[in-house]
Each structure stands twice: as C-alpha cells, then as structure tokens.
Amino acid sequence: MVRTHLDRAHQKIEEDEPEKYFHESSFHEHYDGRFADKQVNYQDKHRYLRMLIQTYLSTMNDIGAETWIMHGTLLGWWWNKRIMPWDSDIDVMMSENSMHHLALYYNMSVHHYRLSDSEQNGRDYLLEINPHYTNDSIDNSNKIDARWIDTDTGLFIDITTLRRNTTAEALGDEGAMMVKDNHHFYYDDIFPLRETVFESFPAKVPYSYADILIEEYGEEALSRIIFENHFFNREKKTWAPVRYSNLRSGLRGGTSNRGREIPR
C-alpha cells in the first residue's frame, strides 16, 4: 500500500461505473483524490507538472519503455517544448509491448526523485497500471491504461496504449491503429518516432505530429497566439497571462494574432 498524508480519500467512486478502475478526485478531474484534497495554486502547478514529466521521461528511459507525448502535451511541445501554463494534466502514449512490460514488472512501483535543492526530502511517484489494460476494445470506463502519480500533490500523467486495430485490419485497412479512448491512427502517423526535448529532458513525439495536432485541434491551434487568457510572446517563446503590456510588445509592428507556420 502506498503511503498518503490524508486520513481519507477524496474521490467520487460512487458516481463512477462499477468497473471503472481509476477514480478522479471529488474536487478536480485531473487530481488523484487518494493523495490530495485540494488543487495546487497557479504558480506552483507548472513546477509540479514539470517535475512530473521529467521524472516520467527519466524513468521510462531507464526502463527502456517506448513512450511519446500526445494530445495537449504535444501541442505544448509544438509551441515551445514546454507544458502550457493553463494545463493541469499531461498525456503520453505507449506501445503495447512496453505497457505489458510495465504491468509485469513495475506495477505499483514507487520512484523517489530529488530534482532541486528546495525539495529537501524529494518526491515519490507511483506507477500504477489499470488491470483492464489488456482489454483491446473501446472502453470509456477504463480508457486510461496507466498513470504516473505525484503522491504529494495528486497530479498525474495519463498513459494510454497504442494497439493494432485488428478489426480494421481484417477489413483490409492495413496499418490501422487504435487507442481505447477512440482515437484512431495509422502506423505511419506515429512511427518512426522523432527524438526531441520536452521540458529540458529527452523525449519523443509521433512522426506526423503536425497532421495529428490539426486533426485533433484544428489548424488554428498551431498558429493562434492568444488562447485560454494567455498570450504567446514570440521573442521570449513563452505563454503569459494576457495583459495590455504583453499584447503591445508581442503584436508591435502590425503583426497578427497568428504565430508559427504549419509545416507540410
């Protein structure tokens, strides 16, 4: 049993489907209520999320697990190789063989890290595998196959598994892949993975990252520099809360609210 500083769990188990394994907290869907009873503040959240992805990438590299960033986290990488400041979760994907390896040898393992001098006692991160990970069909109750959880803040990384779409392959759709959350890809969309850096750590992204992002979020997501009450400063390559001074410095010279050019 993993230690927690709480006297009770803050989860909404009674509201979930009976077969659901991962239960989100009662106060926010991106926290694990076994380890937290409240959200962290805006200033601290990015620091904790940054440590979350750094420790995950480091651990998976040591283990040799094949994993890459996806969804909103991939969009953050697109802009400046960092987590977007309004995000409160991180999404990654993993190959089926790697997920099976983690389930066999690393389920419920706790990994201790000390990433800065301010973290005197370090932090513990839990790798927890959903026992339903072997179900290769669409499963809305158990679409998350594993989580990497900060046992102090309750923040976590959602880990999903990329699988062959055997149903589509049987119909002649060669190279079809799927995820239990109903995302569909082709093998060549993902592989070969591209090596890169994310939050200053070695990471991987899917081969056709731009097409994947456009399919999921639309073309504007790759060029719009004002979003979620934040503004992208192209000189500093950072997102900042919208203020008049930010807009004036970032948009001087008659430029538009569009940013980077989309590669083809």
Structure description:
The protein is globular. The protein has two domains: 22-222, Beta Polymerase, domain 2 (2-Layer Sandwich); 226-259, no CATH class. Mean pLDDT is 88; it is low at 252-256. Helix 2 (71-80) crosses helix 6 (209-217). The chain is of the alpha+beta class and 264 residues long. Strand 11 and strand 12 (230-233) form a beta hairpin. Strands 1, 2, 3, 4, 5, 6, 7 and 8 form an eight-stranded mixed beta sheet that branches. Helices cover 25% and strands 23% of the residues.
Q: What is the tally of helical segments?
A: 7
**Can you summarize the main beta sheet?**
8 strands, mixed
CATH architecture label of the largest domain: 2-Layer Sandwich
What do we call the CATH topology of the largest domain?
A: Beta Polymerase, domain 2
Distance between the termini: 49 Å
Query: Which structural class do you get from the secondary structure elements?
Result: alpha+beta
Number of strands: 13
Summary, kept brief:
With 264 residues, this protein is an alpha+beta fold. It has 7 helices and 13 strands.
Key phrases:
about 260 residues; alpha+beta; Beta Polymerase, domain 2; 8-stranded mixed beta sheet; 3-stranded antiparallel beta sheet
How are the SSEs placed, and which strands pair?
Blueprint: H1 42-63, E1 67-69, H2 71-80, E2 90-95, H3 96-105, E3 109-113, E4 123-129, E5 146-150, E6 156-164, H4 166-170, E7 176-178, E8 184-186, H5 187-190, E9 194-198, E10 201-205, H6 209-217, E11 226-227, E12 230-233, E13 238-241, H7 244-250
Parallel strand pairs: 2-6
Antiparallel strand pairs: 1-2, 3-4, 4-5, 5-6, 6-7, 7-8, 9-10, 11-12, 12-13
Helix pairs in contact: 2-6
